[in-house]
């Protein structure tokens, strides 16, 4: 029986997954003549990070404002660090609302990458996202290294997360964990199946292209596919919290505009529309000095006529143009 099922891990490195589409890829043919579809993903992690209070052995060490990766910020097992915790809480208290406003002021949409155990403390964040028409996607139930827990524990966390998301808003149709285990995509597909939910529409734990592609659904039959929308660390605001990262808001917005303009120019030259992904974090881009970099970029997108939308809308559009075909999927 198992021979008829797809592999549980569709991320093996083969000649064809490395090669991808090759020199040319299918065109997104986005609505309204836009040459680039832009997906801005707001990671909502605050409260779901490593914390003694979450039952972890140590607290979160990095992705905050000071001493990232240095010995002073090394976790001391079993010891709460209020300085780190409250730096995270800046995102859930102040940052998230500033980022939301940047989008609603311009009538633009984002995809919320919600960590379920973080949203549990802030149902208003989901409530407002739904009200604004944002997509509520999954960033896992906990914001942790999933390779460090057993598949049974991971499945249990997925079930726990589904309870939280569905109590606040729609069940996520797309997933990005950031630190998946080898089996994460399989376990998510299985838990959706067991819960009687429709299959997910997109999976983003990969970084290998500018446009979507199909893979066989892990553990599914040959006729079941999983649309992959590559994520991006290139355009990610997290580098503000890295010692060698973005040195100023101006540098960050220049980088985003350069990436977008190049994709737009390539699309015009080749006739194949592209996609761009930008990762954002409430406690990072939501700081007063940095929000202007995002606003400047959003204004540029508006002036150029980009399709700024959710990952779900992009996945629906792509799947409509290019339905899953087991013969060409990876
Ligand atoms: Zn994240």
From TrEMBL:
User: The organism sits in which domain of life?
Assistant: Eukaryota
State any GO CC term: side of membrane
Annotated ranges, domain NodB homology: 82-309
Q: How does it sit in the membrane?
A: Lipid-anchor; GPI-anchor
Pfam families attached here?
Polysacc_deac_1 (PF01522)
Alphabetically list the UniProt keywords.
Answer: Cell membrane, Cell wall biogenesis/degradation, Glycoprotein, GPI-anchor, Lipoprotein, Membrane
Extract the Gene3D superfamilies matched here.
Answer: Glycoside hydrolase/deacetylase
Q: Which GO terms describe its molecular function?
A: hydrolase activity, acting on carbon-nitrogen (but not peptide) bonds
One example of a Gene Ontology biological process annotation: cell wall organization
Q: Where is this region: Disordered?
A: 1-25
Subcellular location per the Swiss-Prot or TrEMBL entry: Cell membrane
The protein's matches in PANTHER family, at most eight in alphabetical order, are given as:
POLYSACCHARIDE DEACETYLASE-RELATED
Q: What is this protein called?
A: NodB homology domain-containing protein
Per the UniProt record, the lineage of the source organism begins with: Eukaryota, Fungi, Dikarya, Basidiomycota, Agaricomycotina
